[in-house]
Amino acid sequence: MRQIVLDTETTGLDxxxxxxxxxxxxxxxxxxxxxxxxxxxxxxxxxxxxQGAQAVHGITLEFLADKPKFADIADEFLEFINGAELIIHNxxxxxxxxxxxxxxxxxxxxxxxxxxxxxxLRMAKELHPGKRNSLxxxxxxxxxxxxxxxxxxxxxxxxxxxxVFLAMTRGQNSLMIEPDAAPRPNIGADGLVRExxxxxxxxxxxEELAEHEQVLKAxxxxxxxxxxxxxxxxxxxx
Length: 238
Fold this sequence. Notes:
By secondary structure, this protein is of the alpha/beta class. It has two domains: about 1-175, Ribonuclease H-like superfamily/Ribonuclease H (Nucleotidyltransferase, domain 5), CATH 3.30.420.10; about 205-235. The chain is built from nine helices and seven strands; from the N terminus they run βββαααβαβαααββαα. The protein has helices spanning about 50-55, 60-65, 70-80, 90-105, 120-125, 135-140, 155-170, 205-220, 230-235, and strands spanning about 1-10, 20-30, 35-40, 85-90, 115-120, 185, 195. The strands form two sheets. The protein has a five-stranded mixed beta sheet with strand order 3-2-1-4-5, with helices on both faces. A two-stranded antiparallel sheet has the order 6-7. The longest helix has 17 residues, at about 205-220.
């Protein structure tokens, strides 16, 4: 399972108005573990940066003057994300900018070369409805240190987002059962492996069954015949 946590910084909010990507960062995870591989590029947007955007990320046009253009890194970027699941906070924003940049070059959109795009903002809204779900808010909620995040930056944000994503999806591995996995040994408190005893099945007595049936009939009466378990009980008795 190869996943790429991705973030961008831009000259403004709308690629349809000609705004461009000025920073892109990708961090690779395989089987929910960091591999140490990452892609991080600052880009010359060939246009001015909106003051509002610059106030958010602090990147100036002077700093970007000698940086490569998106066209110069497009092949490397596409190769890095090829076949992976993308993990992005507010994915429509970043995907919109990336697809606009790729379209300028006559290249295929991101969705055609990536297996899946997961929007962590959407996930967070489903997990925490009615609460703030910005990256900073999620870091606070999941106790992830974001004290170094004084400005937005694609590389730092991907590192924080990766930690947030792992925290939000913690426990998924316990739900995944390998088909050929051997049963876990029964280890006692002394660390020795012990033979598992067969489970004891205790069946309800006739009195308990009769009492249970009376409870179901009361539920059926209160729900005006909507008790789902009573017909099943009658069928089993027949």
